[in-house]
TrEMBL record:
<keyword id="KW-1133">Transmembrane helix</keyword>
<dbReference type="Pfam" id="PF12796">
    <property type="entry name" value="Ank_2"/>
</dbReference>
<keyword id="KW-0040">ANK repeat</keyword>
<keyword id="KW-0812">Transmembrane</keyword>
<feature type="transmembrane region" description="Helical">
    <location>
        <begin position="273"/>
        <end position="291"/>
    </location>
</feature>
<dbReference type="InterPro" id="IPR026961">
    <property type="entry name" value="PGG_dom"/>
</dbReference>
<feature type="repeat" description="ANK">
    <location>
        <begin position="183"/>
        <end position="205"/>
    </location>
</feature>
<dbReference type="InterPro" id="IPR036770">
    <property type="entry name" value="Ankyrin_rpt-contain_sf"/>
</dbReference>
<dbReference type="InterPro" id="IPR002110">
    <property type="entry name" value="Ankyrin_rpt"/>
</dbReference>
<dbReference type="Pfam" id="PF13962">
    <property type="entry name" value="PGG"/>
</dbReference>
<keyword id="KW-0472">Membrane</keyword>
<protein>
    <submittedName>
        <fullName>Serine/threonine-protein phosphatase 6 regulatory ankyrin repeat subunit B</fullName>
    </submittedName>
</protein>
<feature type="domain" description="PGG">
    <location>
        <begin position="271"/>
        <end position="324"/>
    </location>
</feature>
<feature type="repeat" description="ANK">
    <location>
        <begin position="104"/>
        <end position="127"/>
    </location>
</feature>
Length: 325
């Protein structure tokens, strides 16, 4: 990079930038042709020179997504240097910068989560809802990262956003909460491995987490908890209670079903009820005929056929019992 351009970016001298372009029309293009490079936007973003950065981004939008030789974009550097005003200004031009993947596949959202910056991660999700689906090279989502870092506040903020947002339908919300990392671990597995009782409770209460998902070692979250030392009995009890609720007798569901069916009958028109009664009568008649008139008799000996089966019952004893028991 031209040292005059580097100096202009470091000082935020936008007039010097325009003078350089006037003297050399290709000064920015040559930088853009490089695969990994510190652009003037990287330098300005790290220094917090918003006016210079905005002017440069308007001239060369591609700089905002270019990675330097350490695999960081300008917005990554702004985050690392706590330049939140710069982050806001960059997003005002391109909200999808939240999804730019840098070193190890980390996005700005992942960085905010790892730092535990709840206001910033909330802002990222508000500006770019689809960033919740992004994962690192290890297939870790923002929730995985929050659980790994034992950051309950960030975890709660993300989970609350997932549950309340209208940007995702229920199937997508369920998918987000059950995504697995490269080792097959869901967020529930990670919370269990760290004995994060509160996180486990929050996930179970969401009603969208699959407790029976197994990781690559064949462990469910409950298995992961049970091999911890010491065993977190409160977390184990939470998962056990959730399992009991799922496996509870279905009689209550049947009661609710018949109550609903009764209400539907009460709301039917008389003609509809009469038609249903006719159908039920036909079904009952056919059932009666089948039960009380099962196939019977004995096999007859026909000319030209084997006579060894002649005289045997048409219906086998075992099937006969089914009809009369």
């Amino acid at each position: 990079m031209d040292e005059r351009l580097r100096s202009a970016a470091q000082s935020g001298n936008i007039d010097a930038l325009y003078d350089l372009i006037e003297g050399d029309a290709d000064v920015l293009r040559r930088i853009d042709e490089m695969e990994f490079v510190d652009t003037p936007l990287h330098i300005a973003a790290a220094e917090g020179h918003t006016e210079f950065a905005m002017g440069l981004m308007n001239l060369k939008p591609s700089f905002a997504r270019k990675l330097n030789q350490r695999c960081f974009s300008p917005i990554h550097l702004a985050l690392q240097e706590k330049q939140e005003k710069m982050v806001d200004d960059l997003l005002s031009i391109d909200k999808d910068l939240v999804r730019v993947k840098g070193r190890e596949g980390y996005t700005p959202l992942h960085h905010a989560v790892s730092e535990g910056n709840v206001p910033l991660l909330s802002k990222f999700l508000e500006n770019c809802p689809n960033s919740i689906f992004d994962s690192t090279i290890r297939k870790e989502t923002a929730l995985h990262i929050a659980a790994q870092n034992n950051n309950l506040e960030a975890f709660q903020a993300i989970l609350f956003w997932i549950q309340k947002t209208r940007e995702c339908h229920n199937m997508e919300k369920r998918r987000i909460l059950n995504l697995q990392d490269k080792d097959g671990n869901t967020v529930l597995h990670i919370a269990a491995s760290n004995n994060q009782t509160q996180m486990i409770k929050l996930l179970i209460e969401s009603k969208k987490v699959d407790r029976n998902t197994v990781n690559q070692t064949g462990f469910t979250a409950l298995h992961v908890l049970q091999v911890q030392a010491p065993v977190d009995s409160e977390s184990v009890n939470t998962l056990n209670r959730a399992e009991e609720e799922v496996q509870a007798p279905s009689k209550f569901r049947r009661v609710r079903y018949f109550a609903k069916f009764e209400r539907e009958i009460e709301e039917m028109k008389p003609d509809t009820i009469n038609a249903l009664l006719v159908v039920f009568a036909l079904i009952l008649g056919m059932s009666y005929q089948a039960v009380f008139s099962p196939p019977g008799g004995v096999l007859q000996a026909d000319a030209g056929s084997s006579t060894k089966d002649a005289g045997k019952a048409v219906i086998s004893p075992s099937v006969f019992v089914l009809f009369y028991t």
